């Protein structure tokens, strides 16, 4: 049984990597009273003995090759178990796809971050480990939020790194809020993490952060913390603000962030999504062209078989370009500066 190793080292990441798709549940209490519950591989929950007012989900490794967020969460988990930090809030940590961590790829068979909000059960005959695991992860998040009384504060920060670099190293995706306003408080939280570039989504999605935002009214983001790098090659000094802010979030009863100032941010909205429908799909720009690069009106942005996509407005910018996605999936988002702010 792995419980003694976990108590001694706090190295839940290695235990999860050694049990890629399933891990026997267990629980124990730390000497400070914190309840530690392992729900499955990559899923560990902490409940302090004192009263709390927040339910916090911190996920990483939804794409296994995005190592910096994995290292950040691994460090936090170890510090909690070794009692180097003391929790004031309930926290659910999730390493989303341990099997893909082990092979150093985004996923094993299918992109896990396209399988939430029930997408895992759509498509006749489509069964794989990622689909099964997405359904389990939904259940764990649901149980975590629903086990407490209504009205408590909920948040879910899904930590990633991007395939490409970005004009601004770190940026966040704010899930579609179905007409509700975006929150200054949450933008101030992002700024404290060193993130000042935010993309406001205008439609539903099958991402992990949208699942929590839409289903449980949790404050949620997909947070991109730089570019994909192998383990050991991340400049962890560049993540100090993120680590400090997340540590404060889970170890303090209340956290005060600087007052929101619109001038501190670059806010974007989606102009359109371009899907890959043909095997012959390509971009006219190089692999090192970064996210948020703008194009002149009329410039070629993508070619899908015989279909050419040209920039429709001056400065239309690219984000998340990936010509290798499966047929029918989004290969590119284009964005423009946010035109009308609905922020409270």
Structure, described:
- Helix content is 24%, strand content 26%.
- β1 (26-29) and β2 form a beta hairpin.
- The longest helix has 18 residues, at 129-146.
- With 344 residues, it is α/β, with parallel strands linked by helices.
- The model has no long low-confidence stretch (mean pLDDT 95).
- The strands form 2 sheets. It has a 13-stranded mixed sheet with strand order 1-2-3-5-4-6-9-7-8-10-16-15-12, with helices on both faces. A 3-stranded antiparallel sheet has the order 11-13-14, with no helix packed on it.
- It has 8 helices and 16 strands.
- It is globular.
- The termini are far apart.
Largest sheet: 13 strands, mixed
Query: How many separate helices?
Result: 8
State which percent range the strand residues make up.
25-35%
Q: Which sequence of SSEs, written as H and E, runs from N to C? A: HHEEEEHEHHEEHEHEHEEEEEEE
Annotation, overall tally of beta strands: 16
Briefly note the structural class of the backbone. alpha/beta
Q: End-to-end span in angstroms?
A: 49 Å
Q: Please, what is the average pLDDT? A: 95
Helical proportion? 10-25%
Shape: globular
Radius of gyration in whole Å, from Cα? 20 Å
Unreliable segments (pLDDT under 50, ≥5 consecutive)? none
Order of adjacent strands in the largest pleated sheet: 1-2-3-5-4-6-9-7-8-10-16-15-12
Can you give keywords for this protein?
single chain; 344 residues; alpha/beta; 13-stranded mixed β-sheet; 3-stranded antiparallel β-sheet; 24% helix; globular
